[in-house]
Design brief:
The protein is built from 12 helices and 13 strands. The strands form 3 sheets. The protein has a 7-stranded mixed sheet, with helices on both faces. It has a 4-stranded antiparallel sheet with strand order 10-11-13-12. The protein has a two-stranded antiparallel sheet with strand order 8-9. Helix 7 links the parallel strand 4 and strand 5. Helix 1 packs across helix 10, helix 2 packs antiparallel against helix 9 and helix 6 packs parallel to helix 7. The longest helix is centred in the last third of the chain and has 19 residues. The chain is globular, with a radius of gyration of 23 Å.
Length: 448
């Protein structure tokens, strides 16, 4: 732990943060029987280049099943065997002990997840998705009417929906931030907008529909210098590209994409809760009735407590528990913990470099095939690749042809980014270890 900050120091790679006992009430266990997940364990040299070269082999060795032709890591990745084991083990425990008696220790999971952004375990709340995390954060944040919220035109559709609803209900003012020709945030333009008056900035680190990596560290530095909170959406970046160093006020993310965890679990990470931050909806697990004045006649009935409730309603408990629901898919949370520990064991930096190499390879193979054109720069350091169709073809038709060839790709509809997309795009997102032949097979499909 870093003295005076309450934040854990990110673990040295390729090791993971210390974890508890096995995939049971004690939480996921990275040391359980299974393949050696470190890149060195897959036969790499101690050098960085060797580790990167072996990441795909180690990632695939941790999975007894990987669907052939799977090119949709950005939609729903393939969980490892330890993730599956952690989920099933907890479900068995709930059956054997009773759901409420089988309470796992998720501290190792929170520590491992928080370390990926430079935070601490107490800064993490689990929710059911990234969308739910964003709604919980913004919906309960007591910002005044007239609050100016900066976002790029590439912002995710559901976040834009949320912002427009909050604008209508609370008088917030969405402000579009300038981007360059690649839809990368213009830092000088952001500096100017901050100087003219912004109260909150929301950025998708990597958009769902475009594999451009936003300069999160530079954006974070500008926002901190201006005293403006930054919310960083890491749904498509955590486990994919480096996030540490952004210094965001809050991070929202999900399990099922590049972290390769189960569906149905997301997270919110807030390193320092502000007094105005609360969940959108109070719950018994995350909030308290304001106590009434002490009575000499014994316990005060709840009905009496409610008379003395604060003007803002029930009071949130301390820490991030205010955002969590006690009734949740707890087994999925245990599975996410196993997935993040697996990611640490592989070595996050090596995974990032491997995925960047995969993305560059995919763009080189696919750009121009059948007239399809890659949207982002060919050397963009991400493995989320998007393509625009040539005249006479469409993303939907290409995805159908790909399915006939046992290739799984994704169609991103315009509603996903309504300010940026004019037509659907084809998204290709190879998971670690994708063989080049799979990409060449897709190029042949596009050329048909």
């Amino acid at each position: 732990m870093t003295p005076g900050t309450g934040h854990v120091t990110p673990p040295a790679e390729p090791g993971a943060p210390a974890a508890g006992a096995g995939a049971s009430a004690a939480g996921p266990d990275p040391s359980a029987a299974g393949p050696d997940l470190s890149a060195a364990g897959a036969g790499a040299s101690v050098g960085g280049a060797g580790r990167v070269a072996r990441v795909g082999e180690a990632w695939r060795a941790a999975r007894s099943v990987v669907p052939p032709g799977h090119l949709d890591a950005a939609g729903c990745n393939v969980p490892g065997d330890r993730v599956l084991d952690a989920v099933v083990a907890h479900l068995r425990l709930e059956r054997e002990r009773g759901g409420y008696a089988a309470v796992p220790d998720l501290t190792p999971a929170r520590s491992a997840l928080a370390a990926l952004v430079g935070a601490g375990p107490g800064d993490v709340a689990f929710l059911e998705s990234g969308t739910a995390a964003m709604a919980a954060l913004l919906g309960g944040w007591r910002l005044p009417p007239g609050t100016r919220v900066g976002h790029a035109r590439t912002e995710y559709g559901s976040t834009l929906m949320l912002l427009h609803r909050l604008a209508a209900q609370r008088g917030w003012q969405p402000v579009e931030l300038p981007v360059d020709g690649d839809a990368r945030l213009d830092l000088e333009g952001l500096r100017a907008r901050l100087a003219s008056g912004l109260d909150l900035v929301i950025v998708s680190h990597v958009a769902s529909h475009r594999g451009v990596v936003q300069p999160a560290a530079e954006i974070g530095a500008l926002c901190r210098a201006a005293g403006v909170p930054l919310v960083l959406d890491v749904c498509q970046s955590l486990g994919h590209v480096e996030v540490r160093g952004a210094g965001a006020t809050a991070y929202v993310g999900t399990s099922r994409k590049w972290l390769a965890g189960p569906r149905g679990v997301g997270f919110l990470i807030v390193p320092e809760l502000a007094p105005a931050m609360d969940a959108a909806i109070p719950t018994l697990g995350g909030h308290l009735w304001t106590p009434a004045p002490a009575s000499a006649d014994g316990p005060v009935p709840v009905s009496e407590m409610m008379r003395y409730e604060s003007p803002d309603g029930p009071v949130p408990v301390s820490g991030m528990a205010r955002y969590e629901s006690a009734e949740a898919a707890v087994a999925a949370r245990a599975g996410l913990g196993a997935a993040v520990l697996e990611h640490h064991a592989l070595g996050p930096s090596a995974v990032h470099a491997h995925l960047a190499d995969l993305g560059r390879t995919a763009r080189g193979v696919l750009d121009g095939a059948g007239g399809w054109r890659v949207v982002e720069p060919l050397d963009e350091p991400s493995a989320l690749v998007t393509l625009r169709p040539p005249p006479g073809d469409s993303a939907q038709a290409a995805a159908a042809r790909a399915a006939e060839a046992s290739l799984l790709v994704n169609v991103v509809p315009a509603a996903r980014a309504p300010l940026d997309l004019r037509e659907p795009v084809l998204r290709v997102s190879p998971p670690p270890g994708t063989p080049p032949e799979t990409l060449h097979a897709l190029a042949r499909v596009l050329a048909r």
